[in-house]
Amino acid sequence: MVDQRRSRYVGGAEGAPPLPPPGGYQRPGRASAGLDAAAGLPPASADLVYTAPDAPKRTSALGVAAVVAAALFAVTLLVLLMTGGTDAIYGISLLVVQLLVIGVIVAALLTRRGRMLGAIALVVMLVFNVATVGAMSALRSAATQAYDGTKSEQQRHEEAYPGVREHSNYDVLNGPSFEQVQRQGDELMAAVRERLTERLGYTWVQAGAVDVSPERNGYGGESMLKRYVSPTWTTAEPVHDNQRKREIMIIIDQVLMEHDMWGLYPLNVPASGLSDDMVAKLYGSADVERQHTWEYYADTYPDPLRFYVTTYDLSKDATGEFRTQREAIAQQTGEPVEGVQLMIIARNLLPEQDRAEFEERLREYPDF
After folding, report:
1. What is the pTM of this model?
2. 269 DSSP assignment
3. 242-258 vs 178-200: helix axis angle to the nearest 10?
């Protein structure tokens, strides 16, 4: 209970908090300061004022403009690169645009808030600019012969010519087809191998595979005609004796005559039209007896088949350089490093299945 006269708690007031003394608790600031000091905080002060944090800085419009301009310029260059627009890349318009973009980037770099975005835009421009992308486009155009940017309609028409410039389409249509030449070449080489094995006991190693590639038409495009290169057949046994080499050529000549072909013609002698220096460079010496390579040739003129017989003889390699070359080739192809090698090459061949299309397309070129 409470004694009204004394205004304070007396006995019998279990659980009730005591009333504050008259006038309230004294010196609260001192107690608060003591608690703050115990907690390691500075004492409270009536002069302290709450200050709100600064608002975030706004992004520089100039920096954003630099990044956007650099990105759009890079995309434009990449599109021109993919479409073969080499001439457009090096045009005056893109050069002017590049200078303008660089100007915006420099302006952004000179401002405090736009410096970061300006640096990003500068990196983009260092990677994608007229010089670097133009160089890549030029290399791509050279590899694919894609120079459409400066071609006239007449040039595009010529580029699609199905034949080969200065090669008679009459000879193509009236001569042997690709398939016929391939069969003829296979039969010829099989007959030569069989005869040399029968007479001299040679065994043979096949290397490589049939190589068929389109002929260039002479107007910047590809024709419908094909170039054929057979696999090579090389004797597993080396041939070092020059007299034996001549005997081999005589046997091959006999086979050629049986197939209605001209005899072998040597390419490794000055009489072939080459100077002594060139013969020495290609075959190891101007003196046939000392050459590391003998090369002979026969054909079916006016038909396109060309037959090559090459003899590699490392015993005539005085410097060792030719051995290094042959070993590198042998490692790639699997052929023996030396021996007698046979190969067929034929050009300007028309596959049988392409004959109708070839004739149809030729109608667009009456003056060719």
Report:
1. 0.62
2. S
3. 130
